[in-house]
Design brief:
Length: about 170
């Protein structure tokens, strides 16, 4: 199956950012150690648009700002129906394996830290999610976004198969 990634412009919506992780990293040089910070940020409009970005700088606020700018360049459109996802999806990115399942209204977002940030930024209200394998926030965030972009709604399936929507839904 071909991956269908729908890129979105940053100016299309009011985006909210969430800081997933921040780390101090060290570069050892001849003159000693050089410290800097990396920030992983997820941005989204809580209505089907989400993206992640990585920033690195000598100070924390500058690293966060760079990460936000990077995330705005990597926005994707996510298929959400009635506050949940259309179907179950399992995806792997690196050593992080992610399972997301649709949930009944009122369930809430049942997910870990990095996955929760992505799902809430995307606007998913009811979902069950589990991260298996690596808990590295970078890979978990990328695996979650990959899983969300691979979701297919009934409209997309009807269009791909060239059949009416009623036949896909089963009414």
């Amino acid at each position: 199956m071909a991956n269908i990634v729908r890129k979105v412009k940053a100016a299309d919506a009011e985006l909210k950012d969430r800081l997933v992780s921040i780390k101090r990293v060290t570069k050892v040089t001849k003159g000693g150690r050089t410290f800097s910070f990396t920030a992983l940020v997820v941005v989204g409009n809580e209505d089907g648009i989400v993206g992640c970005g990585l920033g690195k700088a000598r100070e924390v606020p500058l690293a966060i700002q760079k990460a936000i700018d990077d995330a705005k360049k990597n926005l994707v459109k996510v298929s959400i129906r009635n506050g949940t996802i259309p179907h179950e999806q399992t995806t792997k990115y690196g050593a992080a394996k992610v399972i997301i399942k649709p949930a009944a209204p009122g369930t809430g977002v049942i997910a870990g830290g990095a996955m929760r940030a992505v799902l809430e930024s995307a606007g998913v209200k009811n979902v069950l999610a589990k991260c298996i394998g690596s808990s590295n926030p970078h890979n978990v965030v990328k695996a979650t976004i990959k899983a969300l972009t691979e979701l297919r709604d009934p409209y997309m399936i009807a269009d791909l198969r060239n059949i009416p929507l009623e036949k896909v839904i089963g009414k």
